[in-house]
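Folds vary. Our protein:
___
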Amino acid sequence: MQRVTSRNNPRLREAARLIASSRDRRKAGKCVLEGEHLVAVYAARRGAPEFLIVTEDAVARPGVRALADAHSSRTLVVPAGLFAELAALPAGVGLLAVVATPAAVPAAPGAFCLLVDDVQDPGNVGSMLRTAAAAGVAQVLLSKRCAFAWSPKVLRAAQGAHFCVDLCEDVDLPAWAAGFRDAGGDVIATVAAGGTSLYDVPLAGRVAVAIGNEGAGLSAALAAQATRRVTIPMPGPVESLNAAAAAAVCLFECVRQRGVLPSPRAR
């Protein structure tokens, strides 16, 4: 481990640029992971980060120490004040990792997919990724106008889900949905009103659930590729659900119909 006290250290400066600028993150093909849980999930599933930055206090914690020791040659230990200059994080986080943004390799469509259409709120996108991973979704595909999946806010909300699903950005969702439908899959378009009740639609087969943004819903082009349109019954006096909440309801209705048993940890 290398102890660093100068803010002019090249790696600290690189981390600061990546945290501050979405443009720099996209250009460099890198992102910044915040906190012990997220870094540990990345390390377990993807391997060594490019480098870690830990505070002198945090490195004394067992979990952080284990990560720092496992990647000792890639770890910078800094004073808490210097760490605080990098990003506005809650007190006590004390750990950052700079990693290469995993490249999306388009795979054959899975049996259970989530299509995210122009959802621009980073918190919603992150929550949807986390829900998809929890529900056992094979692939999450994001349209070109979704929030950048590797931004700090999305990563924070997803809590490691990025590394538990196949994630593809900038996807032409109508074209993808047409191919999925033509191959025998069901494209389930969620609509605020006028669709069949979610609970009356068979969802145990090959399905791709499409969720649109809260303002406009699904694009007309994607909705046109749907094999079924569903609406979540809402007896209360509201017009619609938050996009992330709607995704959770739909995905876990799929889980219920599939008869998936909870893992031993969840029982």
Remarks:
- The mean pLDDT is 90.
- Residues 2-100 form a domain with the 60s Ribosomal Protein L30; Chain: A; fold (CATH 3.30.1330.30).
- The chain has two domains: 2-100, 112-266.
